[in-house]
Amino acid sequence: MKDLIFQDDLYFTFSVEQAEWAVAMWNKVLLYRGIMPGRIPSENEMNRLKQAAPGVLNGSPQEDLGYIMHSASQMYG
Asked: Would you say the pTM of this structure is higher than 0.90?
């Protein structure tokens, strides 16, 4: 089953795996930026995230979410 996720007039259809990956990566960004309390991800974790979603941490958190959503939409395709 796929769920429709809406962001800035763009529609993404994600599988459960893609959605779970996107949520996990978004949580890492929020932790790393200090927006969400919890354990700060290691530099190694963040480097893997940057490789998986190029452009992350180069702008605002909103831009980070866009890069994560785009990368998730390209998975398994």
From this structure: no
